Amino acid sequence: MIDYLLEVNHLKTYFYGSEKQEIPAVDDVSFQVKQGETLCIVGESGCGKSVTTLSVMKLVQTPPGRYVSGEILFEGRNLLEMNQKEMRNLRCKEISMIFQEPMTALNPVHKIGAQIAEALIINEEIDKKAAHQRAVELLRMVGVPDPVRCADSYPHQLSGGMRQRAMIAMAFSCNPNLLLADEPTTALDVTVQAQILDLIQTLKEQRGMTVVFVTHDLGIVAEIADRVIVMYAGRVVEEAACEQLFASPLHPYTRGLLRCIPRIDDTREILETIEGQVPTPADFPRGCRFHPRCPKAMEICKSVMPEPVDMGNHLVSCHLYPGCGDAAGNSREV
Ligand code: ADP
Ligand code: MG
After folding, report:
1. CB contact at 8 A, 250 and 238
2. Which of 6, 7, 47, 72 could form a disulfide with 43 if both were Cys (CB 3.0 to 4.6 A apart)?
3. How far apart are CA 174 and CA 270, in angstroms?
4. Which residues contact 326 (CB under 8 A, 6 or more apart)?
5. 280 in ligand 1 pocket by Cβ < 6 Å?
6. Could you give the angle at the alpha carbon of 87 between the alpha carbons of 86 and 92, nearest 5°?
7. Is the Cβ atom of 46 under 6 angstroms away from ligand 1?
8. Nearby residues for ligand 2 (ion, Cβ within 5 Å)
9. Which pLDDT does position 1 carry in this prediction?
10. If you take atom 26 of ligand 1, which residue's CA is the nearest one?
11. Is the Cβ atom of 42 under 6 angstroms away from ligand 1?
12. DSSP 97
């Protein structure tokens, strides 16, 4: 049996709107991550990627959110059964998160150095002066050119790239074993994006850290992922090793995403897109949630939700593949 650092089993994180409306933002999601591995979560906006990672941090606001069922095992312990105090002990020291928008994590009224130092004082029991010095060191480590000045600045005085570096310094301050990065480079321009990706890769290699990286950018996935899960409308539609996913994508949604990437040998005049939009969780269609946009949709897709089948360490949830919920088990042209 393989020991996973993180194991998410059948997680359902729902929101409850007015009039008891049920919003299944994360709906029966399972995945596993081994120590030292990088797992990428991809999918268009609104597919449940952030709610999945926030669930692992147990930072979903409850209410309106609720962890309806499933388990999140970190080193074998179910985070969903831990109380707030136990979670506070894990956050930062064991599990840390980089958010898409640094301002959600940085406090606008405190200087950067003081914010990083505070995390160190709480978690490492070192005094204020030593913590401040460490904060400056961390800022230097993440490539801030003038770390002393940065530590003495408020978040709004820094550029987007510097703020993101400051947040990475904060995420790394307690040397976490698991790093969750939720689209950490989306708000940055491409050169800064490349620097931040390099930085995360270097730190990961130096510390043997495990990374769950959320992105909608398949270029980034190709660069950093060991394994990939593709999410659509709150569910995992495909999961495979990175090379396998790019070499032989199985799900029509994954194939659609891959066709949207420009290639060097492209002869296409215009880039393809996937027609339509991700439905909102309040009105997900019956059956396969992708069927209204799917070029391969069949009758069964309109009524029966496909279940994952294993095609050889490669999971796919789609009726094109026998075993995904077709009672007759017929194989079909793919
Ligand atoms: P992604 O990160 O893939 O873009 P999210 O995980 O942020 O998607 O959101 C998944 C779905 O959950 C979206 O449809 C979003 O509107 C819904 N959602 C997220 N947070 C809340 C909330 N606090 N209340 C209601 N719905 C929410
Ligand atoms: Mg998101």
Report:
1. yes
2. 47
3. 47
4. 300, 304, 319
5. yes
6. 120
7. yes
8. 49-50
9. 61
10. 15
11. no
12. E
Residue 146 tokens, joined: 């003038």
Taking 80 as the threshold, does the pLDDT of residue 102 lie above it? no
Three-state SS for 190? helix
Q: For ligand 1, atom 17, which residue shows the shortest CA distance?
A: 25
Using the predicted structure, report yes or no on whether residue 298 has a pLDDT greater than 50: yes
Write the DSSP string, 119-164: HHHHHH---HHHHHHHHHHHHHHTT-SSHHHHHTS-GGGS-HHHHH
User: Mutation test of ligand 1: which of 11, 14, 15 has the most ligand atoms closer than 8 Å to its C-beta?
Assistant: 15
- Residue pair 251/307 in contact by the 8 Å Cβ criterion: no
The rounded distance, in Å, linking the Cα atoms of 204 and 14 is 32
Closest approach atom of ligand 1 to CA 60 = 23
pLDDT above 60 for 332:
no
Question: What backbone phi and psi angles, to 5 degrees, belong to 133?
Answer: -60, -45
> What are the CB-based long-range contacts (under 8 Å, 24+) for 185-190?
185/215, 185/220, 186/100, 186/215, 186/216, 186/217, 187/100, 187/101, 187/160, 188/160, 188/161, 188/164, 189/161
At 331, the pLDDT band (50, 70, 90 cuts) reads very low
pLDDT digits (tens, 9 = 90+) for 130-185: 999 999 999 998 889 999 999 999 999 999 889 988 998 998 888 899 999 999 88
53 alpha carbon – ligand 2 mean position (Å): 9
Helix (H, G, I), strand (E, B) or coil at 214: strand
